[in-house]
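Feature request, filed as a ticket because there's no other form

It would be nice if the structure record came with a short human-readable summary line next to the tokens. Right now we just get the raw output. Example of a typical job, pasted below so the devs can see what we mean:
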Amino acid sequence: MRMALVQQHATHDKADNLKRGLQAARRAAAQGAELIGFAELAFEPFYPQRPSQGDHKALSETIPGPTTDAFCALAKELGVVIVPNLYEVAGEETYDTSPVIDADGRLLGIARMNHIPDYERFHEKTYYTPGNTGAPVFATRAGRVGIAICYDRHYPEMMRALALAGAEIVLVPQAGAVDEWSEGLFEAEMRVAAFQNGYFIALCNRVGKEDRLEFAGESFICNPAGNVIGRAAKQEDDILYGDLALDEATASHARSLFLPDRRPELYPKWLSAEAASPYANEPSHEATVSLREILDENLRDILMLSRQMLPGQDNMVAPNAVSIAQAHFNEKAWYRGIYADDTAVGFVMLYDDPETPQYYLWRLMIAGPHQGKGFGRKAMYELIDHVKTRPEATELLASYVPIAGGPWPFYRSLGFEPTGEMEGDEVVIRLNLEEK
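Raw output as currently delivered:
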């Protein structure tokens, strides 16, 4: 079976991106490709280079929708299987999604990215809802196809689940930047996964220079023995072709040795050790957020949050220890720990002077592991409700450092407006409480 991976640059002209993608699929089919895969968000800019300003839903589209309709028609016309990747909206949620279209033009189903990262230039938690489609494998005319979207490839549980579901080929739509990974690691991770699980892995990467990133291209295919059998160009548009003998999956070491010799009765107990992990009980985005008094028993938890800020954020807000120390020397300081259910996730401090109608948001922070889940927004709603109960309160002031990746989009989405004033090197903003 011949497959093709289309790596192409993307601009803000989505119609042109889609047009070029359809043309590339035609060229691939003309070269005998029976399965055609595309990179992550192949037909639109890579939005998460900057945090969402709250308008990300408008950037997404439904499935079925314009993009899948175009590829379904093309798949039926050419008799090929096509797996694009796009930014999906379903109700109030948005996902990083790969639809799987069979050679007769039917939309067999979708795979959504399950694991969502958030770090500098990859602010994906502000755009994507964690997937809820599991690890499906689709029986297509070209073979049994599984999907591991970008970040999902780092999770051995995901890669093993696809093997247990019978995948012969795993497509990995990717958004990998130039020199993002150590030398050789980009391919080595997928070579090991292919060998351990007994399937082909076809990683299709973005390519091209965008706002804050330059994507590397270098898409590749590796076989069930863990050998790379084809690579695309670096930093150039390209179509990579690979001729896959699917019986290699059946005859692989993984299928003949590793998978039959598994001892699944052992694994639940081993994995239950996650309960002792600091990551095991992280609150979900659905957690209830509250503002709690800081006492001896929870002081350390609040102080330790400052050690968990994401790279580059330490210059945006003072450590919580400094804030609490300042509060002890200022009788007008009102401060609380931010909790999601019963987990400390942040800190907020207010300058509370009942003799003026203006109250001031002195500090606000959400620790790195808890960002992108809406906790900061919920905490602000709680704070605003508190300020409204204060004597004669008419507005809430705040300030921020105007740097790339700063909090202004967040404050703007809450209704804050610039006052035109500066406080040192910080921009002063206001929220009219009488309009809320």
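Something like this underneath would help us a lot:
The longest strand covers residues 93-101.
The chain has a mean pLDDT of 93.
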